[in-house]
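Weekly sync, protein design subgroup
Attendees: M.S., D.O., the rotation student, P.L. (late)

Item 1: inverse folding check
M.S. brought a backbone from last month's batch and wanted to see whether the design step gives back something sensible before we order anything. D.O. pointed out we never logged the input encoding, so this time it goes straight into the notes. Structure tokens as presented (397 positions):
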């Protein structure tokens, strides 16, 4: 006759939860019944590798403690890449704690999605979100085609986006996006393609169209990163919304929420950044090739944006506001070429193609292009839900 199993007392308890609002590392450990003296030692150990003040609400944590109140292990997710670990490595000396910041072991896969603009998803962000992806992917895609498409004004129902990209996760949890490898977008009845090519000499990755021409243009199509709409176009005879008289409007008004980032459309130098009467807070940039740009009614200026400073394409130079003569938050964006104000939308649309890949690298690029095209189609096909076979009629003929 076999003897019954002996039940041993449980020595450790594991708690998995999320950081509550207004918690500190000290209060979090105390709330999980660690000994008071041990809490102080744990916080001191953590402070050597991590600032406890950066503990954020709703971040996941895992705590393993002995039933007598000693700590075995504590892990807190700092961000999608790193976690804090406080551990007692020697059970015979439970008051000796070590802390370290470690990186997650990630799994990276290549994923493809197909998104579409429609009445329920009128923006790129909404269309990408409907595919289960986040705003970061939408912004990355918009940045690639920023010299080709004005995502604020040109999207229409029926426009489509097919994207092949890297996606990393750890323990089944989304971590971050890697590079977009290839994309094809149908906007305004035109198909535009992008392929990531890494220069074999510099190692730098850039995006090129199917013919090997760079998608980077002299100017971005818009000074706003995303989502606003054109509320008033370039005109020599526009009824002024405040003064109610007909006068020229030498720029384009973009409706956007107050505080939205405004970026430089090209590399250049700050001519001025300050208050300018009816124009409100204004930034004036000078670029090469006789181009100047103006950004009006800003609520704030970008860091370091002052007369004489150099700015890079895509750098934040201010925030959308309603300073000066403005009926609400918007950006009045103006472009001057060789001393004359011109229509920014038309000028941006007529930009010449970017620099091509050197001829010596073109054959290798074409091989990569064809491989990415095939991989995009195959990945989309593999991810598509299976189609149900047509029902077979059994009725007599």
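Designed sequence read out in the meeting:
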């Amino acid at each position: 006759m076999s003897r019954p199993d002996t039940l041993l007392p449980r020595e450790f308890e594991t708690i998995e939860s999320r950081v509550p609002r207004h918690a500190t590392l000290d209060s979090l450990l105390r709330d999980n019944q660690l000994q008071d003296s041990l809490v102080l030692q744990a916080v001191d150990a953590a402070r050597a590798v991590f600032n406890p003040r950066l503990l954020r609400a709703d971040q996941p944590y895992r705590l393993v403690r002995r039933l007598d109140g000693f700590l075995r292990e504590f892990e807190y997710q700092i961000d999608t890449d790193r976690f804090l670990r406080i551990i007692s490595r020697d059970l015979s000396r439970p008051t000796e704690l070590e802390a370290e910041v470690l990186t997650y072991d990630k799994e990276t896969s290549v994923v493809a999605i197909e998104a579409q603009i429609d009445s329920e998803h009128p923006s790129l962000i909404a269309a990408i979100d409907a595919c289960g992806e986040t705003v970061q992917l939408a912004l990355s895609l918009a940045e690639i085609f920023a010299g080709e498409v004005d995502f604020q004004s040109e999207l229409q129902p029926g426009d489509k986006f097919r994207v092949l990209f890297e996606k990393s996760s750890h323990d089944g949890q989304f971590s971050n996006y890697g590079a977009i490898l290839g994309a094809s977008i149908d906007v305004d009845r035109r198909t535009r393609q992008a392929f990531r090519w890494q220069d074999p000499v510099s190692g730098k990755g850039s995006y090129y169209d199917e013919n090997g021409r760079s998608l980077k243009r002299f100017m971005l199509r818009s000074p706003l990163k995303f989502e606003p709409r054109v509320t008033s176009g370039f005109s020599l005879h526009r009824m002024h919304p405040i003064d109610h008289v007909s006068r020229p409007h030498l720029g384009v008004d973009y409706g956007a929420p107050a505080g939205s980032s405004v970026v430089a459309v090209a590399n250049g130098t700050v001519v001025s950044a300050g208050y300018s009467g009816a124009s409100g807070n204004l930034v004036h940039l000078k670029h090469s090739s006789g181009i100047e740009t103006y950004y009006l009614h800003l609520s704030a200026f970008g860091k370091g944006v002052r007369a004489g400073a150099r700015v890079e394409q895509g750098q934040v130079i201010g925030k959308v506001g309603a300073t000066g003569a403005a009926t609400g938050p918007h950006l009045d964006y103006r472009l001057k070429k060789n001393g004359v104000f011109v229509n920014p939308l038309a000028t941006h649309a007529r930009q010449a193609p970017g620099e091509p890949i050197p001829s010596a690298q073109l054959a290798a690029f074409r091989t990569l292009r064809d491989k990415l095209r095939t991989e995009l189609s195959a990945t989309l096909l593999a991810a598509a839900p299976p189609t149900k076979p047509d029902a077979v009629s059994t009725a007599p003929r």
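Discussion: The CA atoms of residues 50 and 101 lie 7 Å apart. The chain has a mean pLDDT of 88.
Action: P.L. to compare against the previous round before Friday.
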